[in-house]
Amino acid sequence: MGPPANIDSPKDSMKTSQAEPMLPNNQAPATLPSTPYENGSPSIGVQSPQAPKKSLHSFDEAEEDQYIDISVTEPSRKGDGMGSYVEFQINTRTNIKLFKARSFSVRRRFSDFLGVHDKLVSKYLRAGRIIPPAPEKSVIGMTKIKMSSSAQPEQNSSSEFVERRRASLERYLKRTALHPVLRIDPDFREFLEADHELPKAHNTSVLSGAGVMRLFNKVGETVNKMTYKMDESDPWFEEKTQYIEQLDCNLRNLHLSVETLVMHRKDLAVFIASFAKSAAMLSNCEEHTSLSRALSQLAETEEKIEALHNEQANADFSIFCELLKDYIALVGAIRDVFHERVKVYQTWQHSQLMLNKKREQKVKMELNMRTDKSSTANQEVAEWEAKVERCQEEFNSISKMIREELEQFDVNRVKDFKETIIKYLESMLDHQQNVMKCWEQFLPEAQLILVQDEMSRSVK
C-alpha cells in the first residue's frame, strides 16, 4: 500500500467537497449497516443501501426546455508593452431562472477563465465530477501579442493565435455550460453575468508562488499514481480504466495524423503557389498567343486552388484537430477523478488501519487492567469507527458519481464526434466541388488550344 493520507489525529476534519456537503465532524453520521471489516481491510465493493437510482444528469419536464447559449467574440488588446493583455466579450442567452437576465454580455481576460476553472475544480473534483479543462497557456503566443504594436490583435501577425484562443475559450464555456450542475454554480454564473471586473486571479500565473506549488503538487500526484496501485474489485471500474487508457492512445494517434494531414495540405498549397508563379512567368515570355493565354489562365486557376487548399487545411485544424485536442484534455480530467477516487480509498484504508491499532491498544489496556485509560480508549475507537464509516460513505458516493459522469461523457462524446464528422465531410465536399469548378472554368481555354492547333494544320 502506498503512503497513507496525512491524518495525524482522529479529531482532524476530513476534507470534503463543497459541492457535496457532509455532516460536521462533531455530529454523528447517518447509521450505516454493519460491514465485515473489523478483521481486515475494507472491501471496495461494499455498497450501502440507497434509494432508487436517479441520474444527476436526467432532467424533468421543466428542465428540458432550459437552454444556455454562450459565444466569445470581439477580442481587443488592453494596455501597452509587456503589461498588455487581450480581453474577450462573452455573450450569453439563457432562460434559466437563476440568472438575472435573459441576455447579457461581459468582458473577461484569459486569466479570468483560468480563475473560474480553478474554483470549479476545488469545489467538485473531490465529489467525482468531470470538470472540463480550461485552454492551455501559451507563453510564446502571448509574448508576440505583448510585443506587437497594433492595438487590435486581429490586425497584426498574431491574429491566428488570438482566433484560436477565442475559439478554444468558447468551446470551454459551452462544454462547461452543458453540465447541469456546473452551469448553475454561483462562481460560474458570476463569471458570465457580473458586469464588474473580477478580482485578478494571481494564482493562474505560471511563475507565481501558487503556480510553482501546483507544479510540485503535480509531481507528487504523478509519483503517487506510479507507486500506489489500488486493488480494484469493481469490474466496471477496471473495465473503464482500460477503456480510458485505450481511448487516450487512439485519440492521440488520430490527433497526430490530422496534424500531419494539415501540414501536408499546407505544403501542397505552397507547391501549387510555386507552380502558379512559374506558369505566369512562362506565359509572359510565350510568343504563341493562345498558348500564352492558356498558361495565364492555368496560373490563375492554380492560385485559386492554392487558396482552396489553405482553406481546407484550416478547416481540418479548426473542425477536427481542435476537437481531438479538447477530448484528449477531457480524458485527462477523467483520469483526475479516477485518481481522486483512489485518494479517497487511501484515506479509507488509513482510517481502517488506525481503527485496528486503536482496538488493539484497547484490548492491551483491558488485559493489563489499566481501567484509568479505558474511557479514552473507548472514545478513540468510537471516533475512528465514525471516521471509517464516513470514508466508506464518501468512497461509495464518489464511485456512484463517477459512473454517472462517465455515462454522460459517453453521450456527449458520441454526439460531438457525429456532428463534427458530418461538418468535416461537408466542408471537404464543398472544397472539392470548388476545385472541380476551377478546372471546369479552365477547360474551355485548354480546348481552344487544340482547336486552334487543328485549324493551323488544316491551313498548312
Mind explaining what this structure looks like?
The protein is mainly alpha-helical. 63% of the residues lie in helices and 6% in strands. It is built from nine helices and three strands; from the N terminus they run H-E-E-E-H-H-H-H-H-H-H-H. The protein has helices at residues 61-64, 110-124, 139-147, 159-178, 186-193, 209-227, 235-285, 289-367, 374-459; strands at 68-78, 85-94, 103-109. A three-stranded antiparallel sheet has the order 1-2-3. A hairpin with a 6-residue loop joins strand 1 and strand 2 (85-94). The longest helix has 86 residues, at 374-459. The radius of gyration is 31 Å and the shape is elongated. The relative contact order is 0.12. The model is unreliable at 1-62 and 150-156 (pLDDT under 50).
Count the E strands.
Answer: 3
Main pleated sheet: 3 strands, antiparallel
- Count of separate DSSP helical elements: 9
Radius of gyration: 31 Å
- Gap between N and C termini, in Å? 97 Å
Structural class: mainly alpha
- Can you give the mean pLDDT? 79
Beta-strand content bin: 5-15%
| Helical content (DSSP H or I, runs of 4+) | 55-70%
Q: Uncertain spans, ≥5 residues at pLDDT below 50? A: 1-62, 150-156
From the spread of the alpha carbons, the general shape counts as elongated
Assembly state (oligomeric) = single chain
| Secondary-structure element series | HEEEHHHHHHHH
Order of strands in the sheet with most strands:
1-2-3
Write the SSE topology.
Blueprint: H1 61-64, E1 68-78, E2 85-94, E3 103-109, H2 110-124, H3 139-147, H4 159-178, H5 186-193, H6 209-227, H7 235-285, H8 289-367, H9 374-459
Helix pairs in contact: 7-8, 8-9
